[in-house]
Automatic annotation (TrEMBL):
GO cellular component, one term: cytosolic large ribosomal subunit
Record has Ribosomal protein as a keyword: yes
Coiled coil: none
UniProt name for this protein: Large ribosomal subunit protein eL38
Keywords recorded for this protein, A-Z: Ribonucleoprotein, Ribosomal protein
Amino acid sequence: NSICGLSFCLRITYLLGSFHLQPRQIEEIKDFLLTARRKDAKSVKIKKNKDNVKFKVRCSKFLYTLVIADKEKAEKLKQSLPPGLAVKELK
């Protein structure tokens, strides 16, 4: 009976507008910038670790992720983000 409860809960959450689907991977920097410039883009989170830098842009339906191994390219991308977009750096 918990499955029916979960289904009901998901349906209600979706109707209230707080339901987000699975993340989407973006392969190209250009595509990420186009996504970040969309009207429904809310914020960008930048997560750095020793191997790569992950850029995550939250749009209305999906969380889009771009992974960059080159630290210099990551810094250039950070500078290229739209000025009105909220940017948060994570460790």
